[in-house]
Amino acid sequence: MSISMFSMFFNTLWKRVYSEMLLWKHFWVDIATQLSVLVSCCSASFSEIFSYTACRQLSQMFLAIIFFHSSEYVLAITIHGKSNVTLRSLLISQNYLLAIVFSLLEYFLEILIFPWLKEYWWISNLGLTMVLIGEIIRKMAIITAGQSFTHLIKVNHEEHHKLITHGVYRFVRHPGYLGFFIWSVGTQIMLCNPISTIAFVVVVWHFFAKRIPYEEYFLRRFFGSQYEEYAHQVPSGVPFVK
């Protein structure tokens, strides 16, 4: 092989190797760019999750849930005695847990995709106010009713079970239900969860729309015309439920 042919072969080989190196360089640059974008997105996502807004709203949510259920249990023990109270007085059911999980999933998805949606503080504070008002109404109902208040509907009339028409019961027949309705919907408004707010309104209302007539069937059996007159004068407390 002559020197000129060797030189041509070497130049051709070098050009091919050089072009391959350029291709690999562009390839790794593209990968590095994509990784940097992904890391920045993840950093932004984590910063949204651990932002002041998320920490405040979620902490308010968890504190509201813990206080509501623990106070229900403590009040039940105080009124009826520990031997007459079960863990059902915590009012935590499978459907309730599913609703809470759904609301939290909505919150995390929205704060990652639409973080601005959670920054409407007047809406969040309105929800917090509803949580406090609902909690106060419900606890006033429990304390006022005393031993007549139970978490399970009584189907048999007991001696200590009396018709309560004073206190908050002067204004609505079921202040405990009204309080829970306001409280539960308020938790979702507090989180600025539009989907869960609508879902909680529908589900909780439907639950009480079925429970109230069932409970009042026994109340009419227990108290007769006395309850009929009371029900005629005082609303149920849950919107659109007679």
UniProtKB/TrEMBL annotation:
<dbReference type="InterPro" id="IPR007269">
    <property type="entry name" value="ICMT_MeTrfase"/>
</dbReference>
<protein>
    <recommendedName>
        <fullName>Protein-S-isoprenylcysteine O-methyltransferase</fullName>
        <ecNumber>2.1.1.100</ecNumber>
    </recommendedName>
</protein>
<keyword id="KW-0949">S-adenosyl-L-methionine</keyword>
<keyword id="KW-0472">Membrane</keyword>
<feature type="transmembrane region" description="Helical">
    <location>
        <begin position="57"/>
        <end position="75"/>
    </location>
</feature>
<feature type="transmembrane region" description="Helical">
    <location>
        <begin position="120"/>
        <end position="137"/>
    </location>
</feature>
<dbReference type="GO" id="GO:0005789">
    <property type="term" value="C:endoplasmic reticulum membrane"/>
</dbReference>
<dbReference type="GO" id="GO:0004671">
    <property type="term" value="F:protein C-terminal S-isoprenylcysteine carboxyl O-methyltransferase activity"/>
</dbReference>
<feature type="transmembrane region" description="Helical">
    <location>
        <begin position="180"/>
        <end position="208"/>
    </location>
</feature>
<dbReference type="Pfam" id="PF04140">
    <property type="entry name" value="ICMT"/>
</dbReference>
<keyword id="KW-1133">Transmembrane helix</keyword>
<keyword id="KW-0256">Endoplasmic reticulum</keyword>
<feature type="transmembrane region" description="Helical">
    <location>
        <begin position="96"/>
        <end position="114"/>
    </location>
</feature>
<comment type="similarity">
    <text>Belongs to the class VI-like SAM-binding methyltransferase superfamily. Isoprenylcysteine carboxyl methyltransferase family.</text>
</comment>
<keyword id="KW-0489">Methyltransferase</keyword>
<dbReference type="GO" id="GO:0032259">
    <property type="term" value="P:methylation"/>
</dbReference>
<keyword id="KW-0808">Transferase</keyword>
<keyword id="KW-0812">Transmembrane</keyword>
<dbReference type="InterPro" id="IPR025770">
    <property type="entry name" value="PPMT_MeTrfase"/>
</dbReference>
